[in-house]
Amino acid sequence: MIKKQLIMEKALELFAKQGFEATSVQQITEQCGISKGAFYLSFKSKDELIIALIDYFMMQITSDIDYIVRNTENDQLLYEFYYSIYHAFQMHSDFAKLLIKEQSQTFNKELILKMQYYDKLIEKNILLLIERLYGEVVKETKYDLMYSIKGFMNMYSQLFVFYNVPLDLKLLSESLVEKTTILAQHTTIPFVTNELSQMFKQPMSEEGTKEQILENISQKIDEIEESIEKESLILLKEQLIEPTLPPAIVKGLLENIRNHSHCKWISYLLRQYFEY
């Protein structure tokens, strides 16, 4: 395990128990069995570590949603979308609970901007999902429907986060598919118009540029051990620099890296870049 990954995993355990504020760098280094100097070689500060954890968590969710929205057949799309969301919250409930709590208390501008960035990416995927499923039927109400879906995501996720009761993911997903379909088919009075939605738009990061993606790929190639994922990353990097491979091969390489936890975000960025 590389040192940066070790620090993130051990810090997450402490944060889940104590919260961000109550956990010190000293406690993290003791938990990892490393010196403070080794910590600061990986992260400039505790705040940078926190942002790295948020990135890791949100990149997994955002990448999975994007893949589902772009690759699932329409008759299963809404179900798979909801199932993926709540499965992720169930699997990472400790961090999700911490994140929701910290968001309601924090004045950290970087953390707020980071969460707004991922929120906008998820909104983009929800709108794509809505347009795929309902098309012109929801032309006037699609933004209201998007905010309704976000409301479902937020409120029902809290069942996993704050209440330790077993929940049937299949039943929950089916129930929300029914609710969303009813809203899509019968809502006729829009509140959030296209003009009003423009007021909520914010500038997006330039993370998806060719140069940024190349930098990310190079970093991951150095970090991960020899594997099919590493070989695929090398070929994808070459494809970015000088395109020679047919689309089918590129899609296959993207599929090779999609489920690797440290390659999900690169897979997401490349799908956006290649428009797959």
UniProtKB/TrEMBL annotation:
Q: Where is the HTH tetR-type domain?
A: 1-61
InterPro entries found in the cross-reference section: Homeodomain-like_sf, HTH-type_Tx_Regulator, HTH_TetR
Keyword Electron transport tagged: no
Keyword DNA-binding on entry: yes
What keywords are annotated for this sequence in UniProt? DNA-binding, Repressor
PROSITE patterns to which the protein is assigned, alphabetical: HTH_TETR_2 (PS50977)
Residue ranges forming the DNA-binding region read 24-43
- The identity of this protein, by name, is TetR/AcrR family transcriptional regulator
- The species is Bacillus salipaludis
